[in-house]
Design brief:
The structure holds two protein chains of two kinds.
Chain A (H helix, E strand, L loop, with lengths): L1 E10 L2 E11 L4 E5 L6 H9 L4 E10 L2 E2 L5 H7 L1 E4 L6 E5 H15 L7 H15 L9 E2 L5 H15 L3 E5 L7 H14 L5 E5 L3 H6 L4 E6 L2 E6 L1 H10 L2 H12 L1
Parallel strand pairs in A: 3-10, 3-11, 6-9, 9-10
Antiparallel strand pairs in A: 1-2, 1-4, 4-5, 7-8, 11-12
Chain B lengths: L3 H9 L13 E3 L6 H10 L4 H16 L22 E3 L13 H9 L13 E7 L2 E5 L2 H6 L3 E4 H7 L1 H7 L10 H9 L4 E5 L8 E7 L10 E6 L4 E9 L6 E4 L2 E6 L4 E8 L11 E12 L5 E8 L4 E4 L2 E4 L5 E10 L4 E10 L5 E10 L4 E10 L7 E10 L5 E10 L5 E10 L2 H8 L5 H17 L4 H15 L5
Parallel strand pairs in B: 3-7, 6-8, 7-9, 8-11, 9-12, 10-13, 11-13, 12-14, 13-15, 13-16, 14-17, 15-18, 16-18, 17-19, 18-20, 19-21, 20-22, 21-23
Antiparallel strand pairs in B: 1-2, 3-4, 5-6
Helix pairs in contact in B: 2-3, 3-8, 6-7, 10-11
Classes of the chains: A alpha/beta, B alpha/beta.
Chain lengths: 254, 481
């Protein structure tokens, strides 16, 4: 599904990603953990195509296509979805109108006719229930005046509506209380299937109790320095990152 | 992906789609402004003596008035003596029906999407088509007449309904109001006249479509709308002009009178030629529009979507004289390239319990400069007057300007006046968010802009709201900052 080879990227001349290698097969959930500033969110931004990042080296293949050559909208249409850490507010654009435009843009790209109003509403209702999204938020302006939790739930709702093959959750758990965390995780779990892959970026092991990953990668200083199973997350929770950092520095000095 | 500079260049290079000219034989008066030319126009139009007198009074006032200096732009020098004050398509004979209108003219309006053939016309919209200075056709006249609604060219009204014209002409915008209104009073050529009798709800939208074609002419039309007691009318105005290198002056006057319980909605979709990307050519749109709510419980509502003209300079206003009368102003003004807009409204609360609402949405792109200027005044007699003003600016790119000049004058302690203002910029993070959901940048801008102006476009009749939305997308195609 997704293959990242030796990916280097910088922002304003500052090197952020320094050779990432990652293979994410269909249907798997991969967690990416790491201390602040290790490059986790940058990786998400580079994959989604944010234009202030410059890729200096490496390749990213998505379902056999060169992802880095695509515009951000084409990446989304191909099935890459980024759940934003800080979803922006867009006053005046209603959530429902935005979603309808997005869903139909993706359909048009795939050569499908746009959804009729009735079918669209049916889909909306179904997905709303699936991820437990409040109907009142549908007709409001996109994220405007939403609480932190509501914004994150809106991301998961959009994920459900757009049904991508790869979903990248960028610190979706940050700023959520325990109830909201449970609702968001339940939503993700219901959307899990054999065709879909997830990249879950998080600081805390807590989220991984709800969304159980197949693999856990530790990102530090722009590189993946350790890969393990879900037990690695528990170990990190207990020991922190310092032991890994030290090992890494020793390796570097050798 | 295009960066913002490329995108801004892209809008700048966008062609104006109505820039063609029509080749037709014209009657054009020699350039110059003097009493003779005024007498010539009046005679050409076979006007009664009182109207000639009124024109001459306008000319006297014009000679004494000076060009304003308070506006937020440099007023270009306009040589009024170099203009021709009368231009009309040559008529071979008196027209008896639409079939006799010059096919070249019918084709011109067809091309602009305004079919004058009643079978093809938009259902529910009657159109008066004004080409250069003269009304060439009015549709659905017969049908309206059955209900007592008068909708015809100004010239025709002077001939057929002189008493009505004489009673109301100049009562809202006096002949000496300002230099452009005085000029218009002296040389106005044609325009539309509307009278809705007592108790009649006009069954269709009335619409005037203005087209400037001739070179070196100014366009000075005059519209007068009178809504008698308990009547209702919705009126629309559209305009385009050919692309020409020189600037052309459009100095129109619109007067609206609403009597007791009457309601008038006046909507404008202004798309005059804006000039090229370097600011060469384009229309100077210097228009005086004013309505008076004369009767109690009457209402006048202005809605304008201004996307064209090199300079748009106008303040559609309402005098709230009748007790409990209501005035509204909804505006979207878009500037790009080197366009200038200095627009807004004046609302004068004179009667008790009068209410007004002002919603202004400015959009600035390219090197455009957009100013909102508004006055809300409350007179000593206007107990419990209420006003709400919301004034928003949206910036696209970092070369444009946006300014707000709100004036409030209250002489009554019971008045409640609210003013809200915001300035925002279409952010790259907003665009990226929409991109990341499969929406390309063009569509993303259209989505954000349409969301921003929704409140105003909602005021337009359905077909025109769709038109206006399209016009905005075309105008702003590819603009991000």
């Amino acid at each position: 599904m997704l293959t990242i080879k030796n990916l280097h990227a910088e922002v304003e001349g500052k090197k952020i990603l320094k050779g990432i290698n990652l293979e994410i097969p269909k249907g798997e959930i991969h967690a990416i953990m790491g201390p602040n500033g290790s490059g986790k969110s940058s990786l998400a931004s580079v994959l989604a195509g944010r234009d202030n990042y410059t890729v200096t080296e490496g390749e990213v293949w998505f379902n056999g296509k060169n992802l880095l050559e695509m515009s951000p909208e084409d990446r989304a249409r191909e099935g890459v979805f980024l759940a934003f850490q800080y979803p922006v507010e867009i006053p005046g654009v209603s959530n429902i109108n935005f979603l309808k435009t997005a869903v139909n843009e993706v359909r048009t790209y795939k050569g499908l006719p746009p959804l009729e109003a009735k079918e669209f509403l049916k889909l909306t209702k179904e997905k709303q229930q699936l991820v437990d999204f409040n109907t009142n938020l549908m007709n409001r302006s996109l994220n405007e005046g939403f609480s932190g939790g509501e914004k994150k739930r809106n991301e998961i709702f959009q994920l459900a509506m757009l049904n991508p093959s790869l979903a990248i959750l960028d610190e979706t758990d940050s700023g959520l209380d325990i109830d909201a965390l449970r609702i968001v995780s339940n939503g993700v779990n219901k959307l899990r299937d054999a065709e879909k892959s997830f990249v879950v970026i998080t600081h805390y092991q807590r989220l991984l109790e709800y969304i159980v990953p197949d693999f856990v990668h530790v990102l530090y200083n722009g590189r993946i320095i350790k890969t393990g199973t879900k037990e690695l997350a528990l170990e990190l929770e207990e020991k922190g990152y310092d032991w890994l950092k030290e090992a890494e520095h020793q390796k570097e000095s050798v | 992906m295009m960066n913002s500079n490329e995108i801004i260049d892209d809008i700048a290079n966008k062609e104006y789609e109505f820039g063609f000219t029509t080749d037709i034989e014209m009657d054009i008066a020699p350039p110059g402004l003097n009493e003779d030319i005024i007498r010539f126009i009046s005679a050409k139009k076979n006007e009664p003596e009182w109207l000639l007198e009124w024109r001459l009074k306008g000319y006297q006032a014009f000679k004494k008035l000076k060009f304003p200096t308070w506006q937020h732009f440099d007023l270009p020098e306009i040589d009024l003596q170099a203009l021709s004050y009368y231009a009309a398509p040559k008529k071979k004979k008196q027209l008896n029906s639409l079939d006799e209108v010059d096919p070249e003219l019918l084709a011109t309006f067809e091309k602009l999407g305004i079919p004058l053939n009643e079978q093809k016309a938009l259902t529910g919209v009657a159109v008066d088509a004004v080409f250069d200075s003269v009304s060439v056709a009015t549709t659905f006249k017969g049908k309206l007449k059955e209900m007592g609604v008068i909708f015809c060219s100004f010239g025709e009204a002077v001939q057929e309904y002189p008493d009505l014209v004489k009673k109301y002409l100049g009562t809202v915008v006096p002949h000496s109001d300002n230099i452009f209104a005085a000029l218009n009073s002296a040389v106005f050529s044609d325009g539309s006249f509307v009278y809705i009798p007592k108790g009649v709800r006009c069954p269709m939208e009335l619409s005037t479509y203005f087209r400037i074609n001739a070179q070196n002419t100014g366009q000075f039309e005059r519209t007068l709308i009178v809504a008698d007691d308990n009547s209702y009318v919705s009126y629309l105005e559209g305009c385009t002009a050919p692309m020409r290198d020189e600037n052309q002056l459009h100095a129109a006057v619109v007067e609206i009178v609403a009597l007791e319980n009457a309601e008038v909605k006046y909507s404008t979709v202004q798309n005059w030629y804006p000039g090229d990307k370097d600011g060469k050519g384009g229309i100077y749109n210097f228009v005086t529009k004013r309505g008076i709510c004369k009767g109690a419980n009457s209402k006048i509502s202005w809605t304008q979507v201004e996307t064209g003209s090199a300079i748009t300079w106008k303040y559609p206003s309402v005098i709230l004289q009748g007790d409990y009368s209501e005035g509204e102003f909804y505006s979207v003004a878009v500037v790009r390239n080197k366009q200038i807009a200095d627009t807004g409204t004046k609302i004068h609360h004179l009667g008790k319990g009068t209410k007004s609402r002002i919603i202004s949405k400015g959009i600035s792109a390219g090197h455009g400069d957009n100013s909102y200027r508004g006055l809300v005044s409350v007179g000593p007699r206007a107990e419990n007057a209420r006003n709400f003003t919301q004034c928003d600016s949206l910036l696209i790119g970092n070369q444009c300007g946006s300014h707000t000049f709100p004036y409030i004058e209250s002489r009554n302690k019971s008045a409640m006046i609210e003013h809200e203002a915001t300035t925002s910029k279409i952010g790259e993070d907003q665009i990226f968010y929409l991109n990341a959901r499969g929406i390309d940048t063009e569509k993303a801008v259209a989505l954000i802009v349409n969301g921003y102006v929704k409140e105003v476009l909602n005021q337009l009749p359905m077909e025109f709201a769709v038109e206006a939305q399209k016009l905005l997308s075309i105008t702003l195609e590819g603009s991000v900052g």
